[in-house]
From TrEMBL:
It comes from Paenibacillus whitsoniae. Keywords: Oxidoreductase. GO terms for molecular function: alcohol dehydrogenase (NADP+) activity; butanol dehydrogenase (NAD+) activity; metal ion binding; methylglyoxal reductase (NADPH) (acetol producing) activity. CDD domains: BDH. InterPro entries: ADH_Fe/GldA, ADH_Fe_C, ADH_Fe_CS, BDH-like. It comes from the Bacteria. GO terms for cellular component: cytosol. Residues 9-177 form the Alcohol dehydrogenase iron-type/glycerol dehydrogenase GldA domain. Residues 188-387 form the Fe-containing alcohol dehydrogenase-like C-terminal domain. Pfam families: ADH_Fe_C, Fe-ADH. This is Iron-containing alcohol dehydrogenase.
Length: 388
């Protein structure tokens, strides 16, 4: 194992009715709160009313920023920063999925930065101070509710950039699985693919002797694989939503990288380029790209893919080469996602090869891509071509 620090300051309130904890988290009455939400799902499913009831009880002064886009945009972050300054906001409350939370994280650090917050997002400047942030999660997918990462799109530049800061952890997150029972089928599938990708990308590390973490990851994947098909057939099930919601948070809150080199996030980097150009759902892009990334890597070194195939997809190794085991495992993963209804080709999003060079270029927004396998431009081009 490698030496590591395990640190996660986010207080997680999980379970039915936990919204009542919001009063306690607000602390003092009369707080000035920026309520950040998306395109209106929270008004249709009652979550907005439940949150407002708590805020009213605490006599909070509420300012609203609505309309946060899926794949949230810099312009909305800037709007939020201006509102915080004008209104003397003391706490940001994000109510929604990963997009809303990521937008709120960028607002929270941007308020105290004199220049353009894009500098922090592109890592040209460090965040030095942040407004406290609380979240009420309504979609199980990204893990943003318990990590310090945020992904923001500069639409005019077609750039989607991930950034992180020790200041970007939410102070508290409230997770009531009941709030996720209204997530539509497609977003439920994308969320499942996203959280599985987070585990898988961490799984592709090259650190020796990390059996505990490897088994945590295998257990997380097995749990999702068991629950997901049942949930797809029964979107209202509280018990299945509960399992998936907890899995999504644990998949990407730092614990699955303890002691390893952190894994390989090339697929995420390539996907961010894809959704920067085509504005497609993040989990949909991953469903297409990730098995092709695995295939590309396994052709060179199948060892880790074979381990996964045996541990998670119960592939019997007798009489097979390591490569055969690996390829069978990759096929099973692809079949599993397809069986849920996830897309398998870029053509499913009407994407062809016309902008492939631009997509290769967008994947290299960071100096290097990949760690389990360092990507060259040719490798990224190969993965994208296999995905068409
Ligand atoms: O906008 P509203 O009306 O709220 O509707 C949303 C949106 O249309 C809807 N939705 C959310 N909760 C719902 C609901 N509909 C009905 N009932 C509910 N309870 O779902 C749609 C998608 O929401 P969004 O927040 O965009 O999805 P997700 O949570 O998948 O977030 C995606 C964003 O997170 C980034 C992605 O790149 C993308 O920009 N990521 C963030 C990460 C992080 N911060 O750690 C890591 C991830 O890898 C990812 O890159
Ligand atoms: Zn993701």
């Amino acid at each position: 194992m490698q030496s590591f620090l395990q640190y996660n300051p986010t207080k997680l309130w999980f379970g039915l009715g936990q919204i009542e904890r919001l009063q306690q988290e607000l602390g003092t009455p009369g707080k000035r709160v920026l309520l950040v939400y998306g395109g209106g799902s929270i008004k249709q499913n009652g979550v907005y009313d439940a949150v407002m009831e708590q805020l009213e009880w605490m006599k909070a002064h509420v300012v609203e920023l609505s309309g946060v886009e899926s794949n949230p945009r810099l312009t909305t972050v800037q709007k939020g920063i201006a509102l915080c300054r004008e209104e003397g906001i003391e706490l940001i409350l994000a109510v929604g999925g990963g997009s809303v939370i990521d937008c709120a994280k960028a607002i929270s650090v941007g308020v105290y930065y004199e220049g353009d917050v894009w500098d922090i997002i592109t890592r040209k400047a460090e965040a030095t101070r942040a407004l406290p942030l609380g979240t009420v999660l309504t979609l199980a997918a990204t893990g943003s509710e318990m990590n310090n990462i945020s992904v923001i799109t500069h639409w005019d530049k077609n750039e989607k950039r991930g950034w992180s800061s020790p200041l970007a952890y939410p102070a508290f997150s409230i997770l009531d699985p009941m709030y996720t029972t209204t997530v539509p089928l497609d977003q439920t599938i994308y969320g499942i693919v996203d959280m599985m990708s987070h585990v898988l990308e961490q799984y592709f590390h090259r650190t020796d002797n990390a059996p505990m973490i490897d088994r945590y990851m295998e257990a997380t994947l097995l749990t999702i694989i068991e629950a997901a098909p049942k949930l797809i057939a029964d979107l209202q099930s509280y018990e299945l939503r509960e399992t998936i919601m907890y899995a999504g948070t644990m998949a990407f809150n730092g614990q699955l990288s303890c002691g390893t080199d952190g894994g390989d996030w090339a697929s995420h980097q390539i996907e961010h380029g894809l959704s920067a150009v085509y504005d497609i759902p993040h989990g949909g892009g991953l469903a297409v790209l990730f098995p092709n990334w695995m295939q590309h890597c396994a052709e060179e070194d199948p060892s880790r893919m074979a381990k996964l195939a045996k541990a998670v997809f119960a592939i019997q190794p007798e009489g097979k080469t390591e490569a055969e085991i690996a390829f069978e495992g990759i096929r099973r993963l692809r079949d599993f996602w397809n069986s849920l209804g996830a897309p398998s080709r870029l053509a499913d999003f009407q994407i062809n090869d016309s902008r492939i060079e631009e997509l290769v270029h967008k994947s290299f927004m960071k100096p290097s891509v990949g760690q389990y396998k360092i990507m060259t431009r040719e490798s990224v081009r190969d993965i994208l071509t296999r995905s068409l």
